[in-house]
Amino acid sequence: MNTLFTPTSYGSIHVKNRLVMAPMSRNRATEYGVPTQMMATYYGQRASTGLIVSEGIQPDVLGQGFINSPGLHSKEQVAGWRMVTDAVKKGGGKIVAQLMHCGRIGHPSLYPSAHQSIAPSALKAAGQTYTPAGMADFPMPKAMTKTDIDLAIKGFAKAAKNAIEAGFDGVEIHAGNGFLLHQFMSSNANQRTDEYGGGMENRLRFTREVIAAVIAEIGADKTGVRISPANPYNDIQEDDTLEIYTALVEKLPILAYVHIMEANVRDVTESLTKRLKSPLILNPHCRAEDGSVSGAIASDVLEKALCEGVAFGALFIANPDLVERIRDNGPLNQMDPSTLYGGDHKGYTDYPTLGEGEVAA
Question: Which Pfam families does the annotation name (predicted)?
Fold first, then answer.
């Protein structure tokens, strides 16, 4: 039997297969970050996967970086997410909330609060974002004070508590892809000279404190963390990739899981795997030319015992029944990239399942 379709566990989260739906921003929440019935339909359609990791959710107001991204810091948002988790559970699935603070990535024109972004240091990220007025450079963020840091940590802990109240099976702390925790760990975004900057241990301090605060709130068995070693996304530079991630994982408590978004550095993944005490979910990208994660790639890394679960991203967008399509070697729908971010049901909840209509191989 293909290991991909066997059950496993991530801490106290027991799943029916090894497929994981990776977190993917789709920007369909309301202006105020409240999940909608359409989002409940979208996630519910994909409940046959072993574990769903939600799109990035801002833990507090200052964590927002994108238009129509969902939050977990108001009663209305908790109620909206309850519709989503109910839909997933009705389909027999499990879902965790990815808590993602964007830090210096964003623009005031993209959210109701129109706030100035916060970051480890007052350093703009190179790059641009799409705003109502067109493309605009990332603005200058405010360097976080110790009070700002403490408030951000409390925001993660409160959002984790809200996630459990909303019916999630756990949370995933996003410490990769150039967002706030990754910014603190990096050597270019963090130019602090206090206990949160400079040496490697200081740059890891914020991430460790966030993880500890979330564990204190909901338990380590419901807490995962996502990292993306060597990923330069959102203007991140790492001068000590293997060293800093080795130091991070070696001191982690036993978590529900660690999730690695692999950025073409299989040697780093293999090295970290030997040091991990927690189950590993891998979003495998051994080589850039391999493209999207496929059933064959997933089966290969599982056969090599590299991980417990495999995260699929792009294929889940157009194939709500991806589990069944891989299992039955069925054809795949093609994704419409013009409908990825924002909009209505088109390119979101209207992709057919096997037998429901035309598919494109």
Answer: Oxidored_FMN (PF00724)
